[in-house]
Amino acid sequence: MDNYRTNPRCGCARCRLRGVMGPAVLITLGVLFLGENLGMHGLRFNNTWPLLLIVIGIIKVLQYTSPDEGHLIRGMGPMVPVVTPPPPPSAGELPPNSGGQGGNNG
C-alpha cells in the first residue's frame, strides 16, 4: 500500500504489530543487561548488542510483510457504504403514494 500510515484505532495486523516494537526492545535490553549483571561469561553487553538490531530488524520485516486487510485510514473512521437516494420522478410522473388515481382518498 503506497503511503501507508498507521492508525492507533485500526485493528489490521500491520497496525497491531506497530505496538510490539517498544516492548520487544525493552525485553531484549533487559535480557542483555541481566546476562551481564549475573556475570555470565558470554553475555557481555558489548558483545551482544547486535542482538538488539536483529530483534528490531525481525519486527520490521514482520510489519512490512503482514497483511493490511481491513486497515482504517487515519482520520476517516470506519468505512461506511454510501447509499444513493433514488432519482427524482420525471416531470410527467407522479411519485408513488402521492394521492393520485386509484388510491383510497377517503
Topology summary:
Layout: H1 13-18, H2 21-37, H3 45-48, H4 50-65
Helix pairs in contact: 2-4
Structure description:
- By secondary structure, this protein is mostly helical.
- It has four helices and no strands.
- The N and C termini lie far apart (62 Å).
- The mean pLDDT is 75.
Given helix and strand content, the structural type is mainly alpha
The Rg value, from CA coordinates, equals: 30 Å
Along the chain, the helix and strand elements come as HHHH
Please report the number of helical segments.
4
Please give the alpha-carbon distance between the first and last residues. 62 Å
Number of strands: 0
What are the defining features of this structure?
mainly alpha, single chain
Produce a short descriptive summary:
With 106 residues, this protein is mainly alpha-helical. It contains four helices and no strands.
